Amino acid sequence: MTVHLVGAGPGDPGLLTVRALDVLRRADVVIYDRLSQESLLDLAPPDADRIDVGKAPGHVRLSQEDINALLVERGRRGETVVRLKGGDPFVFARGGEEAAALAEAGVPFEVVPGITSAIAVPAYAGIPVTLRHSSTSVTIVTGHEDPAAGEEGSVDWSAVARVGGTIVILMGVARIGRIAEALMAGGRPPDTPVAAVQWGTRPEQRTVRATLATIGAAPLGTPSTIVVGDVAASDLAWFENRPLMGRRVVVTRAREQASEHHRQERKGAFHRPTLAAIQLT
Question: Are residues 111 and 123 in the same domain?
Fold first, then answer.
């Protein structure tokens, strides 16, 4: 019996790791958060249990403590349990808390790292988070701070500003105006480039470019990965410039061919993530 804490990546199904695919195909139960591509659930066996424990703004299906207890309970049954989380399970995804609960309960577990949006999303927007001669460090910070920390928050943004290099902010759209002010108060120039990439790696990806002085008034949408620093001025666009970007392609065929296609799909010869990946190109 093993509980697999699996990173689903940032959204593009083609970025799922080989190990993640392997454990999904053997899963007895998949316990998942809100995913950028729910079609990944189709990779699990048809008879596998699928349990949605995702949190949405203003709505929590299960508390983190309840999720921990669910993982322990299903793991103790001797099942192959996949805990599927967006991005990487140990990057602002509470995977560490779940691993600690499993370890305390004596339930074997495995961590399957995923590609974090902090690196992949800027790459899909043509932004390298490091450059050899100008940005030699990258700091990943959450913009969604613990409410218990009060008005000042739990992140020392002045210290983050002084580190230099690139800053990548996850879950920070709602507070970006205050964050930008704090970074400028910490010494970052107002004209520091900023790029906010919404729905990164997906067909609807959209990039908004601004500066620290103007980002607070920019029309940002959620979810967005926000990049602050000289690299944010880079525009090595490759993904958003693809000819069919954001379009859906319909493949027509004769009725008898369509029937054969559906028969093979039911047998598992086709997977929706593969088809979704085709849509991205």
Answer: no
